[in-house]
Design a protein that fits this description.
The complex is a heterodimer. Chain A is an all-alpha fold. Chain A contains ten helices and two strands. In chain A, a hairpin with a 2-residue loop joins strand 1 and strand 2. Helix content of chain B is 78%, strand content 0%. The chains are: A mainly alpha, B mainly alpha.
């Protein structure tokens, strides 16, 4: 058997392993960046004490590792009043979709070798549902919060769960309508076609309104400040009040994995995916361009979290239904008119 | 694919039965979610990923969230056990089975099974979105628009009924 090391099967396995590991590594880095970024913004030092072998402290980069170990070895108790089955299932429901959604995102330029086409996304783009796959799975993530809040049998947790369900419904609508504009301009649901359509100009320029709506809804969908009502640390502590050790950390990981995926999706839909002048000539360059854009958007998550205060609940609803939804509709109408009469 | 179909359909039916048997409303809602998810998996084995995704987005993603929201708002932990005559239970179970068998027989006799070659236009991994949209906005354009007007009317009615009179 003299086969080339690069064939579709091995490439697939390679992609799955590398993407899974890099997303989870990015999650760990994001937790570190969040703390250091918070400290930077608030003029503190932040966690910088964790050292490898007691000597090497690279700006406290060992912190996520230490935190992970701590959470892993912590005693796992069941509070007496919880619903045991749902209590265990909830973090799993939250975690699985969060790690699955990234599979549809093309993170580099497709290339041809020995007459075989290789795509740099785990899900083959031929399935034709690219973006719907992400929305379908991302919609599942909120059940983790709802079930967790309910199973905890605690009024604050339940408040968090109810807020999460109302919030997700409100913002998913505006978000999807904003994305319809992008799909309309690309003429396809396939994410690689959407990136291809942006080779001249990134979507963020012609569909500025849609980009704003998507960007804002992204924060609501991932339950990040200024929309972190499900958690609301300073008022209700939130859906994971009763959670500890590894179950808590699964919620935590899911939140950050959702952030990574949302950033990736924003880059693909509005910032031209792996396109970048001069850098996207090679495959490696295109991957680097994508990762850099993703990191910039990911940083904006942290930046905004430590800059803006939390909204009030009625303000959140008013913003979602009375501003975001009309804005995305206006964007959709403009794009549709342009492609019907102008393009 | 055959095995996947059996497993998924077992889950779907089991979850659907548990929706009725569970005495906690929120657990019923979650079993309904499981059932919808399994059905979406069945669509995938039929090579219709678009419909599978739509099933997840609309039914599993939006509708069940609304159900759970309402259940949590009512804050009902457990359904009150209903006192029911055993004879009536027996008769209704028998009636349900009879209706199911009749539907199955009429489905076998009907032409729906014969027309599967026409239905497969929506299936297939490639271009199924385009095919679906051509059918929906070409051949069935007027029924589609009528349904959307009906939904709009229902929405307006719901808003009107729930609005506080000033």
């Amino acid at each position: 058997m003299m086969e080339s090391l690069l064939n579709p099967q091995t490439f697939m396995v390679f992609k799955v392993v590398v993407v899974f590991i890099s997303v989870l590594t990015l999650v760990a880095l994001a937790t570190w960046a969040e703390r250091r970024g918070a400290a930077f913004i608030q003029d503190r030092v932040g966690p910088n004490r964790v050292a490898f072998f007691g000597k090497i402290r690279i700006f406290g980069l060992g912190q996520p590792l230490a935190d992970g170990l701590k959470l892993f070895f912590k005693e796992d108790l069941f509070p007496l009043h919880v619903d045991r089955v749902l209590y265990v299932i909830a973090p799993i429901i939250s975690f699985i979709p969060a790690t699955m959604t990234f599979a549809a995102i093309p993170f580099g330029k497709p290339f041809v070798k020995d007459g075989v086409q290789y795509y740099l996304s785990i899900l083959p783009p031929d399935t034709n549902i690219g973006i719907l796959y992400i929305f379908a799975l991302a919609g599942m993530g909120v059940y983790g919060i709802i079930v967790g809040g309910w199973a905890s049998n605690n009024k604050w947790s339940m408040l968090g769960a109810m807020r999460a369900s109302a919030q997700v419904i409100s913002y998913e609508l505006a978000m999807t309508l904003a994305v319809v504009g992008v799909v309309l301009s690309a003429g396809s649901l396939r994410l690689d076609k959407i990136i291809e359509a942006q080779s001249g100009m990134w979507n963020v320029v012609p569909q500025f309104l849609g980009a704003i709506v998507f960007f804002v809804s992204m924060f609501a969908e991932t339950n990040r400040l200024p929309f972190d009502f499900a958690e609301g640390e300073s008022e209700i502590i939130g859906y994971h009040t009763e959670y500890m050790s590894m179950k808590f950390s699964m919620f935590f990981l899911a939140e950050y994995a959702n952030m990574v995926t949302a950033s990736g999706l924003f880059v693909v839909l509005y910032l031209g995916g792996w396109h970048f002048p001069y850098l996207d000539k090679t495959v490696a360059g295109s991957i680097i361009a994508f990762v850099i854009k993703l990191l910039v958007v990911l940083w904006s998550f942290i930046w905004i979290r430590w800059t803006l205060p939390r909204f009030r609940y009625d303000q959140l609803m008013r913003l979602g239904w009375k501003i975001m939804l009309p804005l995305s509709l206006i964007n959709l109408v403009i794009v549709a008119l342009f492609y019907a009469y102008g393009g | 694919m055959q095995l996947a179909f059996w497993i998924l359909s077992f889950i779907a039916v089991f979850a659907a039965v548990m929706v009725i048997l569970s005495d906690r409303p929120i657990v019923s809602g979650l079993f309904l979610l499981l059932s919808f998810t399994a059905i979406s998996g069945i669509y995938l084995t039929l090579a219709a990923p678009f419909i599978a995704a739509m099933q997840l987005v609309v039914y599993a993603g939006a509708i069940i969230v609304l159900f759970l929201f309402v259940i949590m708002l009512l804050n009902q932990h457990r359904e009150a056990p209903s006192k029911r005559n055993k004879f009536i239970t027996f008769v209704s179970v028998l009636g349900a089975i009879l209706i199911g068998v009749l539907i199955y027989i009429s489905l076998l006799k009907s032409k729906i099974l014969l027309s599967y070659t026409k239905m497969s236009a929506v299936g297939g991994m490639k271009n199924n979105v385009e095919t679906l949209s051509v059918v929906m906005f070409g051949k069935y354009f007027i029924p589609f628009e009528l349904i959307s007007i009906l939904l709009l009317a229902a929405m307006v009615a719901a808003v009107f009924l729930s609005k506080k009179r000033v």
